[in-house]
Every structure is written in C-alpha cells, then in structure tokens.
Amino acid sequence: MADARPFHWEYRPEPITREIFRVEGGRPLLGIVPISGAKNAALKLLAAAVLTGERCRFENVPEIEDVRVMAETLADLGVLVEHPAPNIYEIASGDVEWLFVPLEAAARMRASFMLLGPLLTRFGRVIISNPGGDRIGRRPVDLHVDAMRALGADIEYRNGYYFATSPGRLRGADVTFPLVSVMGTENAMLAATLASGKTTIRPAAQEPEVDDLIAFLQAMGAAVSRTSPDTIEVEGRRRLRGASHRVVPDRIEAGTFAVAAAVTGGRVTLEGSRPEHLPAFLDVLDRCGVQFATGQDSITIDATTVGPGMFRPCAIETGPYPGLATDLQPPLCVLLTQADGRSTIHETIFEDRLEWMSALRRMGARISIHGGHEATIAGPARLHGAETEIGDLRAGASLILAALAAEGTSTIHGAHHVQRGYENIERKFLDLGARIERLEEGTVSTTS
Ligand code: EPZ
Fold it and tell me: Please, what sign has the CA dihedral across residues 327, 328, 331, 337?
C-alpha cells in the first residue's frame, strides 16, 4: 500500500547568491570523470510525465538548477514531485490543479515552454509565459505555436502569455517546420501522443535526447517512432501509462570535459559517455590532432604527448545533429586557441553565440569576430589568468576551461549560470586535479 500521505515537493530554491569560480591554471587534468544524465533530455522527460496521471520514475537525472526549476514548476501546477534520492525523481500528475506556467519559471528557464504540448493535449488548456533562456539570441517560440495550431489548438498571445485551448482532443496533422528545432520537434511530438489520428513531424530534430524522449514515450504506450532520419510519426492514443526511464548521458558535458583534458595537456576518461553521440565533435578532435580512444561507453582523451600548442588548426561549423552541436562550439573555441595556426568558426544556429569570446580575448586569446556568426582564432596563444563575467551556460563552462589552461589565477563571476547545466562541476574538476573553488562574491580564497 503506497504511503497515504501525499508527496509534495518541498522546494527550497537555492538562493541565487553572487558566486564566483576561483581557478588556478596550468595543471594537467588526470583521471576519470563520471558523465551525468543529459540536461536536455531530463527536462523534456519530466515534462512528458504530465501526459499520464500514473506515476513515472526517472533515474540518472542530473542534480542541476534547471531540473530543480522544472520540478518546482510542475509542483506549482499541483503535480506530485518526489525526489527520494539523488538523481532520482518520481512524478505523478493525477489532477493538475492549475494550468498556468508563470513568467518566473519561463524567465529562469526556456525549457519550461516544453509544458505547452503535454498540458494542452492532456487537459485541453494552458496559459504559459513566453520564455527567456540564455543570452544567445532572440530564441522565439513561433515554431512551437505554429505546430500546436497545426494540431488544432487555438492560441492567443497577450501581455507576455500564450492562452492555448483545444476544443476537444487535438487532431493529428502533418507538422512541417521551416528549419530544424529541437524543442519544437519535442513539443509537437508530446502534443501528438494524445491527439486523435496520425501526426507526421518533419524535418524532425535528430539529437540523441530526442530519441531518449521517444524511448520513454514508447514505454508509456505511445505509438511514436522515427520512420526516417528526419521524420517522426505518431499515432495518437487516448491514454498513456506511467513508466520508468534512465536518462541518457550528457554528450555536451562529455565534450566539455574532453576539451578540458586537451587544453591542460592531461589524460582523462569520460566514464559513461557514448562516442556514437558525438560524431562531429570527435571528427573535430581528430582533425585537430587530439589523441583519443573510444570504448562502448567511455572516451579517453590523452594530450600528454600531443598537447597544447601542437594541435592543428581547423574550420568548424555548427549545425543540427548529426552536425556539430552548437553547445560544443564555445568549448572548441578554447581548444582552437591552442592550435598552431588560424582556425575559423561558423556558428549557424544562434546569432549571438560568439559574443562571449571577448572575455577569452582578455585572457590572451587572439580572436577576431566577424558579425554574429563568424570568427577567426589565431594560435597557439599563451592564456593568462583574468577576471571575467559569465553570460550564459556554455560560455561560462568554457571560461573555466580557458582558466584551467591559463597561467595564473582567474576569477570568473556568474557561477550560477554554470550550475544550471553542469552537475557538481567544480567537484568533478577537483577530482581531476584542478585547483578550482566556488566562493561567494567578496570572500577571500582559502588557497591564495
Ligand atoms: C535546444 O534549444 C537546446 N536546449 C539548446 O541547448 C541547443 O543549443 C539547441 O536545442 C540547438 O541544438 C534544450 O534542449 C533545453 P532550437 P532549442 O529550437 O530547442 C530557432 C544549452 O545550453 N527557433 O533547436 O530552443 C532558434 O532561434 C541549450 O543546453 C525559431 O526561430 O533550440 C534557433 O536559431 C542552449 N523559432 C534555431 O531555431 C522557434 O520557435 C534552432 O533552435 C524555435 C527555434
């Protein structure tokens, strides 16, 4: 007999204190780093649990701020959220009391918009705030809204909120996107699982996190499958059942630590990473001459012989999966500062994802930025410690990589941005031999 007491999410928001990372660079990273569950899978899996009133259990959920925000947002809807142990969440959305996703959630996390599809298709109505997200471009949600309208929803936009209703069940449709959108694909897919009839989504995003979500939906009894590389088909069902799922490893965290090993001249094994999820990234490492070996669920980077200053320059261009992940462009820019020659970067997904490199320049990197999409990096550059400010999640992690490679000590403001998406990042770096500490603004370092 389940415990009769209702489980309620006792969320104690982590105070956003002004925190800094203090990093002393110049030490090779050595050892094994466990790769956590993928942020960009976990957030959608938690949202998908709303498609059923039955209990869903998730393992390998990363302990990061964005997951806590999603859990709090679900709890505020009246969804029962239980966090019985680290990296485990259980969700039961029996009768959701309040179909309103507030500005506060959306402003803190763009992925809160993933609740549009599941709430609309299950309950027939939702009021949801236009989301915020990282400072890497406008990042509209028009494709999500168009997909819901294609599935028969009425959506009005007023004063920062979308008022969405669906008279009766949503209706299956051909959803065609003008460009590949990861969460657009996922929102449409979730909405289609309870619609009446068949839905075809194309071009559907091909990221591994999308396939992780498909696997969970299938475990729930949804009739969803990827019928060709860029096509997802769904046959709507009236109800879905609860299910359990283990979150796929985070390929972006794996790539971030791979670059950390390379730029510090270290040797690191990324335990639990899936090489097959990083085809374009590993191709860049290969072209740059970074030595690595792959196992079934591990990647070992060895830069103890071919290290910083000896890497080959190369041209990188981001693109939808299986192209090079835009989230790995900032870490790779740090690697290219240590290549012997001139490298070029073409960022095709977001228009403001190169701005952060002005901070990298202050650490000694030789970078020219040409508009919002192109940059050139001349190397090798001897990086030196500096005081910098983080603007977004991936740029923040990349400033840590640069600080680890630099000579001297760096102070990086805005540590909370990194906590959004990397589980225990400073502990993981410490365990690899880095000198890093997270401090509140204004405190004196214990190691200085
Ligand atoms: C997801 O964002 C990821 N976030 C991003 O990771 C990732 O960088 C991005 O996909 C691209 O791979 C999560 O999964 C939570 P898109 P998403 O829709 O889905 C435009 C990180 O650091 N667009 O694939 O929001 C958009 O502006 C984050 O973990 C519209 O025009 O990205 C972009 O140019 C950063 N209208 C392009 O499509 C829309 O309605 C692709 O964006 C939606 C998107």
Answer: negative
435-440: strand order across its sheet = 387-389, 409-413, 19-24, 435-440
Asked whether 30 and 264 are in contact (CB, 8 A), the reply is: no
- Report how far residue 60's alpha carbon sits from residue 207's, in angstroms, rounded to the nearest whole number: 19
Helix axes 329-336, 279-288, angle to 10 degrees: 10
**Dihedral, CA atoms, 214, 219, 224, 225, nearest 10 degrees?**
60
- What pairing do the DSSP bridges indicate for beta strands 409-413 and 387-389? parallel
Distance 11 CA to ligand 1 centre (A): 28
Tens digits of residue pLDDT in 139-187: 899 999 999 999 999 999 998 899 999 989 999 999 999 999 999 999 9
Give yes or no for residue 273 CB within 6 A of ligand 1: no
**How far apart, in whole angstroms, are the C-alpha atoms of residue 250 and residue 32?**
16
- Dist. CA 340 → ligand 1 center (Å): 32
